[in-house]
Amino acid sequence: MSEAKIKIKNLYKIFGKNPTDAMEQVKNGVGKDELLEKHNHVLGLKDISLDIHAKSIQVVMGLSGSGKSTLIRHINRLIEPTDGSVTVDGDEVLKMNEEELRNFRRSKTAMVFQRFALLPHKTVLQNTIFGLHIQNISEEEAKKSALRWIERVGLSGYEDKYPQHLSGGMQQRVGLARALTNDGDILLMDEAFSALDPLIRKDMQDILLELQDELHKTVVFITHDLDEALKLGDRIAILKDGIMDQEGIPADILLNPQTQYVKDFVEDVNRARVIKAKHIMSDLNGQDLNGAMPINQDEFIDRFIDKVISEKPENLVIQDKDNNNVGFLSTKRLSEILKR
Amino acid sequence: MSFFTEFPEMPNEAFREMKKGIDAGYKDFAREWGDTIDAIFDPLLSMLVFFEDLLIATPWPIFMVVLLALTYWGSRSIKLVIMTFLAFVFIGYFKMWEETMSTIAIILTSVIMAVAIGLPTGIAMSRSDRTQSIVTPILDIMQTMPPFVYLIPIVMLMGIGKIPGLIAVVIYAIPPLIRLTNLGIREVDQEALEAADAFGATKRQKLFQVQLPLALPTIFAGINQTIMMALAMVIIASMIGVKGLGQPVLQSIYNQYFTKGVLYGLAIVIVAIVFDRVSQSYGQRIQKHRSGRLV
To answer: For residue B183, is it within any domain?
Structure first.
């Protein structure tokens, strides 16, 4: 893993008239419901710390009201925190003055919104160009870059249409193209695909993964959908009532849920489609590899399970892409994991 | 006992003194500053006179062609063009052409004034709740105070003539524009604003690229209202010397000229309808992105 691109430390957000006092209460252990009832303040985030690694997709998952959208808005400071620190590439975002913040937003981040947030009076092209336009970049240059991304998200031919004339999925493609045209390292996606139909959502997820393979942005992706989280996330953070319940790689969250909330969440997931061989292998430790079936470490279980069933090997040997043995997995353990 | 039957009023003597004092004070102010204030409004007078002279001097066929072209450009509707043509034929045939030109000139000038003052005021109001809480009661007064009442100090200050009439018209017609500008900007979708913020837009860029364009339909409704109210006020303003369609109506009331009154009344209605339809259809046409149809 590379170094942390975005470091969130001890972040608190309390909505209300007197957040500083209310924060003392929260630090003394007052919960969300009690805070609202007795002190009339809303607990947005409580003591959130999260390191987001460069060039990876960090998913933040939670139900509505869990504070996930609040959290993502702290990264580009659309919301001011009550306390805590957010650094990007070592720079403290919360200490920036108005102009520094504006330049930071222009050069480092781009955001995709749940309800698209396109400007209805501008065409697809004008919307896509918006980020560059307000930086006074020459029209020609901006247009060139915008047209490239419009083509990349599959909207060629729609440049002069207005957002109202497009379907939801197409509008969000414009939202994505607008964010990519801005060309920051960080892509903030606030429930970007939640408003879309399931099929279109899957399309958009595939587009995002495909783009990520090529662009290696640092993506922060908010969702309430576990399947989406597992599909996209290199790491997943789970929020509940403004508190971070668990954070880790998808397989870890599936295999070792730490709280009842996470357990409930992951109960019905098809593990075979999410867990890779490397997640469940044990060390080689001089195990007898005679007759063991070789499996690539990055294969999902459902990709090799058929082979295991038909050939019935006792053990599997897990290999990296150069066919070096890196781990060991017994079929007994495999079936335990799938049964649970 | 009289305490319960008679309201405890201000003593007559003191009341008289108070009225006298305020009147005298205002008269002094008017005497001292009247000329200066006249001078301030001079450019406005020039503009009004220029429009009036221009409209009256323009030969009627040219005016008609320009008007119809503007109507078509604004509305893209042949029906509206034909209606406008017939309306102005009516006005010209019944000898009301010159008065109509005067009225159009003052409407034009007062709407330009109203937009020049009202738009910035509405924007300022939308940006601060404090400004809004100060301006709103002033607008309430402007809208409920009978126009005759504020004609008095204006006439005392500037005498009878075009400019006082123009000011009265603007006072009467400007509130809807200010209110609707404020409302339109405040109603702009928060997500669109958030997006502009997220991409690093300055306040100015947000105003001109997001808030004003999105508020435009509402602002345009305000301008439309302002035009209509200005037309209504032109009649009252004729009492203090504004030339145009109002004066013959006033004469007809004094002298009980029934036919004349009705004809000039109709002319006002015609001008109002034409202005209303054209400005409304223009307002709709610039919103072409709103006529949503999926591709």
So the answer is: yes
In this prediction, residues A244-267 reach a mean pLDDT of 88
**Alpha-carbon separation of residue B133 from A60, A190, A220, B81, B185 (angstroms):** 41, 35, 41, 43, 16
Band of residue A133 on the pLDDT scale cut at 50, 70, 90 = very high
To the nearest whole Å, the CA of B219 is away from the closest chain A CA by 15
Which amino acid does the sequence have at A87?
Answer: T
The CATH number of the domain where B70 resides is what? Answer: 1.10.3720.10
Q: What is the pLDDT of residues B221-250, one digit of tens each?
A: 999 999 999 998 888 888 888 889 999 998
Cβ-nearest to A111 among B198, B205, B289: B198
Task: Identify the structural domains of chain A with CATH numbers, from first to last.
Answer: 52-108+184-269 (3.40.50.300), 273-339 (3.90.1280.20)
In angstroms, rounded to a whole number, what is the distance separating the alpha carbons of residues A209 and A202?
11
Containing H/E element for B75?
Answer: helix B60-75
Would the CB atoms of B191 and A167 count as touching at under 8 Å?
Answer: no
How many CB atoms lie under 10 A from the CB of residue A282? Answer: 12
When divided into structural domains, chain B yields a total of: 1
Lowest mean pLDDT among A30-34, A216-220, A300-304, B219-223: A30-34
Domain around B55: 45-287
Indicate yes or no: CB of B198 within 8 angstroms of CB of A158.
no
Shortest distance between the Cα of A105 and any Cα of chain B, in A, equals: 5
- Count of pairs with CB atoms under 8 A, one residue in A, one in B: 79
Question: Given B194, B213, B292, which is nearest A164 (Cβ)?
Answer: B292
From chain A residues 101-160, the ones with a CB under 8 A of any chain B CB are 102-106, 109-111, 113, 115, 117-121, 130-131, 133-135, 158
Q: Is the pLDDT of residue A156 over 50?
A: yes
